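JOB MANIFEST
job_type = single_chain_structure
chain_count = 1
residues = 234
[input]
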Amino acid sequence: MNSLPPPLRAHLATACLALCAHAPASAQLAVVAPLSDALNVSNQAETIAKWGEQIAAMKQQYDQLKWQYAAVTGSYGRGQIGLNDSINASSVVPGSWQEVVQQQAQGAYGAKLGQYEQLIRTMPQELFQNPQGQSATTYRLSTDSVRAAMSGGDALYAQVQTHLNNLAKLSLQVDSTSNVKDAQDLQNRIATENGMLQSAMGKLNVMNLNLQANTLNQQNQAQAATQRFFSSSN
C-alpha cells in the first residue's frame, strides 16, 4: 500500500472506513429479524397455553355445575317403593265409622265377618218381643258396631304391619342414596309412609272410642229400661 500514490491511499482508506461503518448495521438487520420472529412465536405459544388453561378451567366449572344440577333434579324411584301396598292397605278401611259399619254390613270384609259372627252369634231382630222396639234397635246397633270393630280392626292391624314393613325397607336404603335429591326423595317417601301409619293408628283409636261409646249407650239404655219398668209398675 505504501507504493501507492498518496491520493489513492487516501481514497482507499476512506472507502474502508465507510465499509466498516456500514458492516455492523447490515449484520444487525440480519440477526434482529430472526430474533423478532422467534419472540412472536414464543408469545403466541404462551397465549395459546393460557387459553388452554382457561378452557380446562371452564370445562371443570361446567362439569361441577352439571353435577350440582343433577344432584337436585331427576327421579330415582324412591317414591314408588312399597307405595302400591300402602295404598291398597289404606283403602280397605274407610275414614268414617259410619262407612265402616256400612261396609261390614255389605260384606266388605269377607271371611273376617263370618269368623267374628261365629263369636258374636247375633240374635235375629225378629226374635225380640218387639222387633222394632228400643231393645231390638240397641242390640242391632251394638252387634253391628262390635262386628265392624273386630273385622275393621283386623284389617287395620294388617295395614299397620304393611306400613311398618315399608318403613323398615325404606330405612335400609338411607345409606345408599347417591346425592341430595335422592336422599330428599327417600326422606319424603318415609314421611309419607309414616303419615299413612299414623292415619291407620288414628282409625284404630276411633274404633276404640266408638266401642266405648257403644258400651255407654248400652248402659244408658239398660238404665232407661229399668226406669220405665218401675215407672209402669207404679
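[summary]
The CA atoms of residues 156 and 200 lie 6 Å apart.
The chain has two domains: 1-71, 78-233.
exit_status = 0
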